[in-house]
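Bench log, entry 3. Co-assembly request; chain sequences pasted below exactly as received.
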Amino acid sequence: MPELPEVETIARGLDKRVRGDVIESIWLGSKPEPLKSTAKEIAATLEAKRISQVRRVGKHIVFDLAEHRPSRSRKKSRKADPPSQNAQWIVHLGMTGRMLVCEPSAEIEKHTHAIAQLGSGRELRFVDPRRFGRLSVTHGFAAPGSEPLEVELDRFVSLFRNRKTPIKSALLNQSLLSGVGNIYADESLFRAGIRPRRRASSLTREDLRRLYLAIQEVLKEAIALGGSSISDYVDADGEEGFFQLQHRVYGREGEPCLVCKTPIKRVVLAGRSSHYCPKCQK
DNA sequence: ACTATGTCCTGCGAGC
DNA sequence: TGCTCGCAGGACATAG
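Structure output for the full assembly:
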């Protein structure tokens, strides 16, 4: 479901609602796909931990955990460790994953794969019909690619300069940039005036500079509007996003370009729908 | 090392 | 009404 702006919105909402709460126990469903770490490992890492913070890294939600009832010896060893070595719960929502904060009495939705009981009496539930989402535990999590809103221009240019693959495919490659997905790749390429099939290596430094600025602009606008609500996406508070109203090419095949009225085209690239204006994008 | 393609899943809407 | 088909916000494994 979610790309960077949606995950950012969800992580902020979760941080507001569960920061400081304690995970008392966790139930994990029997379907193996959603678990990247073993169930045993996840349970052992999460139980009796306090959620010190919830944040976004790439398209991942990171729950930073702290000992809730540290023993004397643990406390001592924790002092010696850098904060980055504290345990973390990593949630990737895939296409259809959701994290819900609810009362235990709330009906358990179909495709619920994990339920964490919280000290506040509430529950944190992971629901994901398509099971493309993943749960794992780790220490010092880092996304493989650069953060689009933090990367410097020179670094950005060097990521794409020598790639023969279409620029759209390169934008979706999370080991280059972490967080851009199908919607925001299309929207950024439109704003930068670049066709999705252009070879990344054919782009001039000026092209890449425009793309760099377009990506940041699109992502910031989308975050400000709470992300794009397509089908049933809602954030942690059940609020819809509104950036879908700002889409200029995504999902608009055949509709007139908002700039020049030319019908928007759709092609399939790397197995993903790609939308562009054949006149505005070169 | 890089690139292109298939696969993992369920649910929904379009078209018949 | 009910069926089949294509499509969906993602990311891996695999083969070339």
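Chain A has a mean pLDDT of 92. Chain A has two domains: 4-139, 153-276.
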